[in-house]
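[Automated response] Your request has been received and processed.

Submitted sequence:
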Amino acid sequence: MSLVTHNSERFMYSEAKDLTKTENSTAMFWRAILNREFPADRQLYTFQEWPPFNKRGNCRVYCFKDRTKRTFLYVEFKRADSTSAKLQEGYHQVTEYCKRYLRRTGHVQIDCMLCYGTHAAHWHLSRNADFYFMSTMRPVIDFIDADAPRAVELTRRFRFLRKTYGK
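Generated structure:
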């Protein structure tokens, strides 16, 4: 089941897949998907930081629970032509950011995504009371194309997050 459901998303998909484009194309495509999957009318919001405030392109999806803002999904964007070394570095950046977030806020879990072009890897990071971190990521980063049958895995996780954090 494809995550690409609209003509505008199909256009952004082709842009994000283009190896000559920057990570802006990746971000634009995945932000369109995230905005559709996490709509503001369910009180779920996406926020993207770009330079000069942040050196990297990233996005957070958050909600308001108990009168506080809570990030439940953190996403990092990379170019479609990223090398495996760059993707491994991106995985570590996302994981370290999420660990810091959990330490700082006291929350016990967060979902993580690393996107390059039209592909995304998704994992869940949680901690126990002793700040021992556990991840659902397999030893090899498993990327899924947004227009492939395996995209249903992302759809299921997005649905779970919507039900858990949305109104």
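Summary generated for your ticket: Helices lie at 7-17, 23-37, 84-105, 152-165. The CA atoms of residues 16 and 25 lie 5 Å apart.
If you did not submit this request, please reply to this message.
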